[in-house]
User: Fold this.
Amino acid sequence: MLYFAYGSNLHHFQMKKRCKDSIFLKKINLKDFRLTFRSQYRAADIEPCKNSIVPGGLFEISKSDEKKLDVYEDFPILYKKFYFFYEGKKVMTYTMIKKTPFRFPTERYLNVIKRGYSDCKLDQKFLKKALIN
Assistant:
């Protein structure tokens, strides 16, 4: 199955540790969404936003990888699954259920995401924009 990462799962080493079968395919943009951070965990989330994009990584994952991600993402308590189509193929990602106000991420978490942006060769300007909110 195809999985779209936009937060800490962009970090290749961490993703491989968590999901041993995962394969990074390429970077893609999710259109008409924007990146934000929220909840008591100050975690990454996406929300609809016209004329905006969320850059991320497209991964091929196995069924067992998906189960591990479900646990990590606290599905279905904190995150729910969101599906979209990319080049005619169904892609899964996670989005928070409760849209709480913006919370600045911890430095440690932010550094993992920055490393992920670097691993996937994403433009950090979108991450910077999400942090000014």
Q: What stands out?
A: The first helix runs from residue 12 to 18. The chain has one domain: 2-127. Strands lie at 2-5, 23-38, 43-60, 79-86, 89-96.
